[in-house]
Structures are given as C-alpha cells and as structure tokens.
Amino acid sequence: MNSTSKENESPLVGILMGSPSDAEIMSRASNTLNQLGVPCEVLVRSAHRTPDESIEYARSARERGLKVIIAGAGLAAHLAGVVAAYTPLPVIGVPIGAGPLAGQDALLSTVQMPPGTPVATVAINGAQNAAYLAARILALADAELAARLEQAREERRRKVIEGD
Amino acid sequence: MNSTSKENESPLVGILMGSPSDAEIMSRASNTLNQLGVPCEVLVRSAHRTPDESIEYARSARERGLKVIIAGAGLAAHLAGVVAAYTPLPVIGVPIGAGPLAGQDALLSTVQMPPGTPVATVAINGAQNAAYLAARILALADAELAARLEQAREERRRKVIEGD
Amino acid sequence: MNSTSKENESPLVGILMGSPSDAEIMSRASNTLNQLGVPCEVLVRSAHRTPDESIEYARSARERGLKVIIAGAGLAAHLAGVVAAYTPLPVIGVPIGAGPLAGQDALLSTVQMPPGTPVATVAINGAQNAAYLAARILALADAELAARLEQAREERRRKVIEGD
Amino acid sequence: MNSTSKENESPLVGILMGSPSDAEIMSRASNTLNQLGVPCEVLVRSAHRTPDESIEYARSARERGLKVIIAGAGLAAHLAGVVAAYTPLPVIGVPIGAGPLAGQDALLSTVQMPPGTPVATVAINGAQNAAYLAARILALADAELAARLEQAREERRRKVIEGD
Amino acid sequence: MNSTSKENESPLVGILMGSPSDAEIMSRASNTLNQLGVPCEVLVRSAHRTPDESIEYARSARERGLKVIIAGAGLAAHLAGVVAAYTPLPVIGVPIGAGPLAGQDALLSTVQMPPGTPVATVAINGAQNAAYLAARILALADAELAARLEQAREERRRKVIEGD
Amino acid sequence: MNSTSKENESPLVGILMGSPSDAEIMSRASNTLNQLGVPCEVLVRSAHRTPDESIEYARSARERGLKVIIAGAGLAAHLAGVVAAYTPLPVIGVPIGAGPLAGQDALLSTVQMPPGTPVATVAINGAQNAAYLAARILALADAELAARLEQAREERRRKVIEGD
Amino acid sequence: MNSTSKENESPLVGILMGSPSDAEIMSRASNTLNQLGVPCEVLVRSAHRTPDESIEYARSARERGLKVIIAGAGLAAHLAGVVAAYTPLPVIGVPIGAGPLAGQDALLSTVQMPPGTPVATVAINGAQNAAYLAARILALADAELAARLEQAREERRRKVIEGD
Amino acid sequence: MNSTSKENESPLVGILMGSPSDAEIMSRASNTLNQLGVPCEVLVRSAHRTPDESIEYARSARERGLKVIIAGAGLAAHLAGVVAAYTPLPVIGVPIGAGPLAGQDALLSTVQMPPGTPVATVAINGAQNAAYLAARILALADAELAARLEQAREERRRKVIEGD
Predict the structure, then answer these.
(1) pTM for the model
(2) What DSSP letter does each residue of B101-158 carry, written as one string?
(3) Which residue, A29, B95, B124, E79, could crosslink E73 as a Cys pair with Cβ 3.0–4.6 Å?
C-alpha cells in the first residue's frame, strides 16, 4: 500500500493511515490529489504499533520535500497529533468512523489538540476534503493548481445545477 | 475591533468572528500571530447578520493579498463554511464554546463540511492553534517564520522541562 | 429534479435540498404538500457548491410568490441558515440523517441559529412534518387548506383507532 | 405573569411556558414581539401540572384570534407537542436549557416530533428567534410588519458593521 | 392489536404504544406478563394523533380496575408523560429505540419528567423489564405472583449457571 | 443520617444513597414522603464501599415491612441495580448529577438494566419524583394516601393557575 | 462455556462475562491469553442474575490463585464494579457494545467508578486489550511472558511495515 | 513538580501529567500512593510539547525500576497512549476533565485504544483510583501493601457505616 501518484515527481503530500483497514476511506484523499495533479505518497504508520516509524516519517518529512501531511486514524486517533508534534509542516487529521462510536472518539481525539500543536481536522471520514485542503495550501504557491481547484469548484457547481 | 498587527505590512491572515462576544477567545489568534510576526487583520463578520459583507470579504481575500482566513463562530457556526465556499484560500475554523452546549454545536457545524469545501477545524475555543496552523502554512514559503515557529516550539518544550 | 406540484399554479412552497442524495427523504415533503393541494417546487441548491444560486433563490423567493421555504441538508447543514439570512419568509429546516453521526450534526447546525435569523427546525429526516408545518402556516390565510389539514388529522386519528 | 403587549389589541401570538422559572428566558420572546408591534399574551401552562388548561388553551386558540403559539419548556419538554396536537395553528417550540443536561433533553423532546404534528423548533433558550419566526409568519399577511422586520434586519447588520 | 391476556380476567396492566410499529418491542411486555399470569390489555394510543383517546384511557384507568400502565413510544416520546398527568396510577415508560438517534431522544423525553408527574422509566426497548417492574408492584399485594416472580428469578439464575 | 419519618410507624419506603454527598438531593425524597405521610427511612449504603450492607439491606427489606426502595447514586451508579438484584420489591433509581458528566453516566448506569432486574428510573436528581412514584405505588392499597396524592396534584395545578 | 487455557495449569486470569451473548467478543480475551501462554478460565457470571455467584467468584479469586480478573458486560454494566468491590485483585472491565447505545452506556457504567474501587477500563469491545493489559501486569513477575509480549509487539510492528 | 514519595526508596510508580494545570487533580494519585506507602515520582511530560522526553521516560521506565505508569491528560489526551506504545509496563490513564467538553474528549482519547496497546482507564479526574489500581497491581507481589489496601477498604466501609 505504498503508492506515489506520479512516478517521476517526488510527493508533496504524505498520506498516513493508522491501519490497513482505513485504506478504503483514505484512498479518497489520494484519488482526489491524483485528479488535481498533486503528487502524493500513501503509507500505513501507526502511532501505537509503529511509533518510531511514524515519528521518523514526521521528522524527515520537510527535508524530503513534503509540504503537507494527511493522517487518518480511528478510535483513540493519536496519529495526527503525534505527527504534528514532530514536524513543522501543516498536518491534516481525518477522523475515521470505525468502531461502535462511529468516529466520535476519533473526531475528539484528533481535533481537541492543546495549544501549540494544531491538527487541521476535517469531517469524520472526510479524506476527500483533506485532499482539497492540502491542495488549497499548496495552491498558495502554485497558480496552476489554483486554476485546477477553481475548475473543480466550477464542476461541482455545474453538476448541482445540471443535476437539478 | 479592526486591528492590523503591523501597520506598515498588509495582512496575510484575516481573522473573522461571528459576533463581538467572540473577541476574547479570538484575540488569542491575533496575539499569537503578532508574537510570530505575522501581519493579520481582525473583523466581525456574521454569516447571518452581515452575509453580503462576509461573502465580499471572502471573495476579495486572495486578491487583497491574504493567504489564510481564520473564522470563529459559536452555536450553528456557519461562518467558516460560508467563507470557504467563496474563497480558494485555506480556511481555518474555530468553534466557539458559547451557549448551553459548550461548543459541541459549533464543533459539528464547523468540522462536518461536505466534500469540496474543506474547513480546517481546530479545537473548541482553539484560536491559538488556529494561529499556529496559519503560521505553519505560511512558513512553507517563509524560512524566517519557520525559524520563529521552531523557536516557539523549543520554548514550549523548555517551559515544560523547567516547570517540571 | 425540478417539479411543480400543479402545473397551472405557481408554487407557494420552495423545497431545497443540499444534495441529490437527500431526494428520497425530501420527497416526503413534496408528496405531503401535493396531497394537501399545496403547489410547490423542488430544487437542489447547495450552500457550499452553489452558494450564489442558493442566495439568489432566497433573495427572489418572496417576489416570485413563495410563502415558505423548506431546506433540507445533512452534515454541517448550513443551507437553511444561509437561506434564512437572505429571505424574510419563514424558513423550515430539515436536518438530514446522513453520515456517521446520524444527523446529530445536521440537527445542531440547523437548530442552533443565533438571534435574528430563525430556522423552524423539524425532526431529523422530518420532511413530512416540514410540509405539515408549511401547510399550517399557509392555512392561516386559506380556509380550504385548513379544512384539508383538519381532515388529514382526523384520518391519522382514525387510522390509529381502527388499526388498534 | 399575564401580559398583553398592546392593551387595545387582541393578541396574535400566545406565549406559553411550562413553569414560572422559564419566565426570564421567555420574556425575550414577548419583548421582541413588543418591539415589532405584534400583540401577544404570556401564560404559564404546564403539560403535566395543568394539562386540561393547556389543552383548552390550544383548542380555543384559533377561534380566539391567535395566529401562532410559542411554547417554551425544559427537561422532558412535552408542552409544545401537546399544544400542537390540539391546535391547527403553527406552534413554535423553545427548548429551555434548564437542569443538568443543559437543554439537550428539552431540544430532543421538542424537535423529534412524529409525522403529522410538527413543532417549529428554535435553538435552546432561543425565545428571541421564536418571536422573529412568529413575526415572519405573520408578515406574510402584514406588509407593515414585514417592513419593521426588514428594518430590524438592517439594524442588526449596521450594528455589526459599525461595531466592527 | 387489542389483546387481553386472560379472557375471563379483567386486565390489571394496560400497555399502550404510540404507534403500531412499536408492537414488536412492546409485545415483550405482554408476553412476559402473560407468562407471569398477570392479565393485561394492549392498545395503540398516540399522544399526538389520538390525544383525547390517550387522555380518556388514562383518566378512566383506575376505575376500570387497572393498577399499572405501561407506555412505550419513540422519538419525542410524550405518551408516558401525558398518561401520567391524567392518572394517579404508577406509569412505566418504555423509550423505543426508533429513528436515527436510536432511542436517545425517547429516553430523555420519557425519563426527564418535572417534579410531580413521575414516569418509571426502563431501558431503551426494555419492554420486558417494564413487565417485570409492573409485576413487582402488583406482587406487593399478591403473594402468588410474588412466588412466580421468585421462580422466574431462580430460573434466570439457573440458566446462567447451567449455560456456563 | 438515619431518619424515620414517623417515629411510631415502621417505614414503608427505604431511601438509600451511595454517598453522604448525595444527601442534599436525596432529602427531597424523604421530605416529599414526609409531606405525604409515608413513613420512610434514610441510609447511606454504597454498592462498592459497603456492598455486604447494601445486599443485606436489600435481602431483608421485604420481611422488615418495606414496600419500595429508592436508591440514589452518581457516576457509575450501581446501587439501584445491585439492590434490585437482591429484593423482589420495586426499586426506584435516582441518577445523581454529580461529577463532570452531570449525571449522564449515572442515568445510563441506572436505567439501562438488562432483562429481569428492572430499576424504575426517574430524572437526574429527580428524588422528589422518586417519592411521588413510591407514593403512587403505595396508594394502590391505601385510599387515604391516594387522596393526599390527589390533593397534592390539585395544589400543583392551582399554583400554576394562580401564579399565572 | 467454561474453558481453561492449559489443562495442567491453574488459571491466572479469570474472564467473566455478564451474558452468553458476550461470548464472541470476550473470546478475543481468552484467545489472546492462550496465544501468550497465560492460563485463564472463562465463566458467565451476571451481576444481576447470579449476584451471589459473582460475589463468591470475586471473593475467592485470590486464594484460588487468580491474579487478574477481566469482566465484560453491556448496557448498565455493573459486573466489573461489583467484582472489584469483592476482590483485592486488579479488575479489568470490558464495556460490551450491545444494545441501541452501542456501548456508550456500558463504557460509562464501567469506567466512572467512585474513589476506592477502581476498574481498569479498556475500549468498547476491547477484550483483546484486556488480555494484553492482564499480560502486562503478570509480566511484572514473569520474564518469559515479558519476552513473549515483546515478541508480539515486534510482530505487530512488522506486520504494519510489511503490509505497507 | 518533581517529588518522590519516600526519599530513600526508588519509585515504583511514575506519575506523568500533560500540563502543570493537571497538578491539582493528579496530586490525588501521589497523595494516595504516599498514604499506601508506595514510592512514586511525579513529572510533567507532554505528548505534544515534550514528545521526546515522554518517550524517553517510557522507554527507560522498566529498567529504572518502575512497575506502573500513571498518565493524566486532558482534551485530545494522547499521553497515556504514547507512553503505552513505548513501555511494556501497565499504563493507567486518567482523563482530565478540562475544557468545554468536561473530559468527554479526554475519556475517549484515553480509553478507545486499538488492539495491542492497552491503557487501563479510570474515571474522568479519577486520579485517586489510578493510585488504588496501581496499588492493587503492586500488591500482587507485596503482601504488606495488600494488607494496607485491605485496611483502607475497611476504613472506607467503616466511614460509610458510622457516617450513616
């Protein structure tokens, strides 16, 4: 489960998930980034089962050229917070709606971060919006991406109007 | 309640709040940005009482040179979502813990955005982290800010160790 | 998905939904209004994907002869609130029970409106009651509709007694 | 606690509350209606302590000239639902934020009405919006009231802009 | 759906449900009472669709020889509270777990009764326990029923031990 | 904290509380029973600190002449359930609204009992209603108490009407 | 449903469940202990249906050689608390996600224990972690078990890395 | 804020808290351990502000002679989970009831741990029970401590009976 959206480009967004069972939800993030032409990589890294690898990933992310990290996890979702503690990059958290509480636990574990270590939290299972948020951030310095985002916005609008 | 953090610099972050009663919480965002040397502006703009002005603010934000918008609101907090629908910039939402539900309504109204219009949500009353998140985004293109953020992180660390 | 309950009559109730996926729930509103002989129209208008069209709809609603607007949306349901900010008509909000939180997010996003911009909120997925509420409002000035409502009430009563 | 907003006019809105302890919250409804020039009456009627009087009030409301009933109650708030079962008028429910659950019980008891008997629910403690909603309904047949509502909206807007 | 557990005996327990869709859950109450030899009757009576019939049932219950009333309802479950307001008998409320909130609304609408009008609330969908509670009450004056209850308790115990 | 409402009468209702800190709330139960002329006794018995004494109390309750047991506890409120497992008498549970969750934990711990061991649960802090419920049960076999209950109901009604 | 993980060894961990329907979840605890080579026994013991047997089990646990007790129960889950009141051993509670509230009731009933009687609570349905926690406790005095735990940790890590 | 309960004894229990503001709550843990004669140490270690120090503490805990770690944190409380990922010792989590959600966020962030990394969670603000749980674990290998725990249990019992 390690993919790079465009083989010749080094990834700008790193997508982590706490468990292989999160892959279906989190693939919406990589799919959306692929559609927007944003190179990304996808890895399974667990805050509790592979803490060293998660930390190492976070620590080296900036120097490896990443600009944004997206981290999805369920239950007591610590992954995004742990990553945010080890990288200066913006970190986007996706609470996964797994388990009996349907993601309420993951939402609170992800969003209620204490001062100093922010996690940009999106909706429960909101991996697609995590990608759009990453793209908005990258578009600050990439006019072409900004144009593609604008196009995607226009398409969403058109679909609603036409589907009317 | 309209302040610019540094008079000679045009603001990079726009801080909106839905009501003057949110000012105490939201001033933590402007204070933090001021400390980090990030120029910002603070305005009251309501999604329901001044919808046109909120939309106009969002629409013109990018061309006015803003890079990030922070929007804080309580109750059925629509402000961040409405702003995000009208700007391509990254929008950070601060759910304000006002009213009998202590911000649970504002949290869900802010974070549970549908696909295509992301709001980077921080903790209830987490205006300070909204500023840190904005700074992380801006630091992608500003090495000096990145250094100041690193310094702030080190200071937080030192305080905990020394306060030990 | 644009229907007018009676072709020769201009609609009195506008039914908006934030997404085509809300159509199954929201059709209960149009069906009930049709049964009560209240002309209505049904459109998809999203607070975030077609904000301009939503606002334009709200702004022109009264002069187009509408008396009540029903707006159904899920997740961070901003549609009813945005519409209520742009029309002087009574706006009825239907929180849609979509997504992992089963409509708790939509309920709070719809009902917890700040002072000045009320949304008359009905139950989660309560599109049928939105129609009955619209009909109660219209019946204030329409004795025949009042009679049909009374009849419907009597039928509900009879069904319970007979079904006993 | 029985007031009529204008002595020479018969009330158009009946404001009920389940307990005298709700008076502080519910007075926001009568104050707002008074400001808008809408004659109203205020009574304490309990679904459980004075059920007959509550029902009698609901039953006779329309023929006594009332157009809208506002009912505020806390805890297991049954008042609005019971009233709605006995009147064809639109009924607005105000969940009162009393007791240890801060109105979450009253919100659900008021808004989750079954099909056929709608209660137009506003925010917890949202008595002011109950009045605005009643005024929106009455303004459908009262151009002067519509103008006063428009004026109030403009004033809210101006306050935000000036207070800025 | 009107059954009397023993044809020659007049019912001691009246079982009401707000809707025919509650019948599957509520039949556990009548089945349990039948097993315990307690005569009961089962009726559909809605607080909102047949309020007069519900009230009439409650009002006449004691003189008709009933000792306990069990009322099951979902959503904004007002039935038990309305019945308790009109009878001096002990009223047992069964919150039905219908709708998107899985009975959390019905639980709060049933249990959070204000002082003076108690509803003896059992678990969500706990119709069987409503029957056992009614039987405990009746057994205060019926030694044979007490013995049967004791027997049922012993059987539950034995099943656990043997099933071990 | 061991009181008997009438010295010459043996108690019919036993009121237990899990902790002396529950005394303020639970005294509403004894006060109400005293007003209704129902002899009761009040004891502190903890499911966890004095389990043997709690069980012994429950086991001997019926033969000591008690008819109803009221048990109030906060947090993980096990007292009512433990007592109900050891007595055939009807047990009324009062969830105490202590601690950070304001009684939501106590409510669920008290009401969500499994089949076979019912606890008649009243509102959070609803000790007064626990007393009224006990009185309704006792009034099945005590016409004078029934009359006093009727009188109390009439007084509640009169207060609302007069206080109007 | 009474198994001992290794026939020749006396059990160190006792696994109780409140109902046979909890067996599927709770078997994860015994399976995990079996894999770790920790002898355990599994019994159904209900706090409400077999209170004496539950207490007797708890009371004799230490002298029978048990070191840790794991207790799983759903709804108003009193089992772990009752056991903890009767044994000096560490007690681990597993809230079972049964019923309409998906284990939120069991979680609060298990974890919110008052001072003096702790229950080491794991996640809803977290029987596997209950076993790991028991093993961590036992490993304090068992170097071989500590090594097996370390091995299991390494395997979890390897699986994530390889499954990557 | 670094104390060792008995200067001449090396600590058996390490008490961590995520912030100095947790000290008041967490001192109940150290006070209780002191009363029980269990040597402990208290440190501030944040999962997000001092992640390296937290990890280093966890990693070296066993070889430094610690047997149990207690970790208290509020909001998105990751501390206990992070520590549990780096130590084979039993880790007890204390959710701190800070912030607008009163500890519901901390409870879920602490207890809902994924399989393999258990955190023994006690009640919100339940630092005293964390100490008792640690003592129960240590008493498995310390008969004198077991006796002191038994004594404390007897005292709690006596206080309830005498306070009666």
Answers:
(1) 0.96
(2) TTTHHHHHHHH-PPTTS--EE--TT-HHHHHHHHHHHHHTT-HHHHHHHHHHHHHHHH
(3) E79
